[in-house]
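Researcher: We're teaching a course module on how sequence relates to structure. For the next exercise, students receive a sequence and then see the predicted structure as tokens, so they can try to spot secondary structure elements on their own. Here is the exercise chain.
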Amino acid sequence: MFRIGVVVEGACDLAALPILIKKCRNDASVIPRECRGPIFYKFPRILDELERSRTIDKALVICDADGEQPSSNRVQKPRPGGEKEERLGR
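Model: And here is the predicted structure for the students to work with:
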């Protein structure tokens, strides 16, 4: 079994990324860790903890470009046809 340690910023990433990894590699065992906030200064400590507690084959550190959680209501940029796409949370 291939063991992957995943360090992410928030709960949305923590829920989604292990599913994505398992779809890419069926034999993957994902060991997720949530950083709860800015990841830059915290991830080395979390990687050390992963290495001490379990043998991992690879480690992924994933952070968002903007560092914000996705919102349920979002207006996207205009499409090439000039129309806007809106998603409304209900």
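Model: If you want an answer key for the exercise: The CA atoms of residues 6 and 32 lie 5 Å apart. The mean pLDDT is 78.
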